[in-house]
Amino acid sequence: MQRWPTETDRKSPSDGSPPPSPRPAAAAAAAALLRQSVVPGATATQVGFNWGLKSSHPLPADKVVQLLRDNGVTKVKLFEADPQALTALAKSGIEVMVGIQNDLLDLSPAASPPPSTGSLRTSPPTSPSSAFVAVGNEPFLETYKDKYLLVTFPALQNVQAALIKAGLGRQVKVTVPLNADVYQSVSGLPSGGDFRDDIRPLMVSIARFLLDNGSPLAINIYPFLSLYADPHFPVEYAFFDGGAAPVVDGAVSYTNVFEANYDTLIWALEKNGLSSLTVIVGEIGWPTDGDANANLVNARRFNQGLLNRVMAGKGTPKRPSAPPEMYLFGLLDEDTKNIDPGAFERHWGVFYYDGGLKYPLALDGGGASSQPGGCGTFPGGGACSRRRPASTIPDRRQWVLLQRAGPPQQGLLRLQPVFQAASQQSGSCGFSNLSVITTTDPSQGSCRFGIMIDTSRRVATRSPSSSSSSFLSHGFRRWGAQPAVVVAAAALSSLLL
Questions:
Q1: Average pLDDT, the chain
Q2: Contacts (Cβ under 8 Å, ≥6 apart) of 25
Q3: How many domains does the chain have?
Q4: pTM of the predicted structure, to 2 decimals
Q5: 112-to-66, 106, 157, 491 alpha-carbon distances in Å
Q6: What is the rounded CA–CA span in Å between residue 494 and residue 207?
Q7: Low complexity bias: where (predicted)?
Q8: Which of 57, 99, 236, 328 has CB atoms 3.0–4.6 Å from 244's, for a disulfide?
């Protein structure tokens, strides 16, 4: 019998690249996502979101923060020190993990923290809480070919030293978000887990350093990518509702790849004398487009199943007492992400790029309907539509570009994102006289023409009323009592001056 207990995720590097792929038009910026009910054994603050910023027309940062607050989200992870995002988060009460990009890890002066900390300028925390600096992002990914192998640990040590010097060593913790390919199992079972041979000494040193400083190890686990990479991977093993044939490892039976993957890491830590190191899940989620298995039904099934586990207080066989802290990937779709790993890369969001809710989620598994809010799109819309039939296209390359998308109407979607990314400038709808600007929505059925956000003006977001039967109306407003902690405060940046 073939086994898939510990599929690791070999995720390719993902940086921004235009143009965006099409997505269904968002109905509205949703004001309700999660009902934050307290369940024995779990906390309402155990799940956060990854807030990615690779968008041609980003939703204004203050609107994103309001979206988080309206939905009771109390923690967020940023991949970079974006000034607008940090400013909007500064007084929100939302706990923040701020990332230092990989290309900033290579330092010359050994005593200086990575230069990205200099851009994190905000008020220092006023009272104890927990927040994080994420040093790099999956720096040991095999596709990087050892590029960051020698600089990641020194950067981690430098950031920790900077935090201590700033008096934030106990409040702000460091971590290194790692891909699940840093560990492996020769037997194919979790109990055979150990760190990858080529980086084992380095991983042990990093894990020991994190343990000694009271910091967690962050691991990114993507069951979707296991399914995407292997056509023989059992679909049900990617989900949490018990439909998969169990994989037996001694006295333990695994029915989903998340538990098996996570426990493989725990076994690796135990074998190296690091059994007490805290492990958090830095990224986990499911995309809604770009692959046969990437759709709204599967995304809701996976994310709701994951959240149900958290709120039930369910851990894994190796760490059964409580679920790990985790960050869903992601909050919003990102229409300029690199799609070399797959077209799905732009569709991980629980929300569309403009804040429109894709599907409802409830932390307690409830069935209340969500309450939509206002939409942040160009007033009146506008689309770049076909001027003449495809048979008369003069440029052969454009012809191929259009026809690859399928039927002619779908081919137009290749033009529309370019027009929208250029903020509907008339000159961006030329295409060798192929197209024409129209104010009539050319969408037909499931073939939708998306309209970008007008970033030149502020768009009001409508909040649901208190009488709404939405998730939000019963939510716990945790941020009111929690002090705002934004990572790498002014004291950190002053060390670079």
A1: 74
A2: 356, 377, 443, 448, 449, 450, 451
A3: 2
A4: 0.77
A5: 35, 11, 10, 14
A6: 28
A7: 117-128
A8: 236
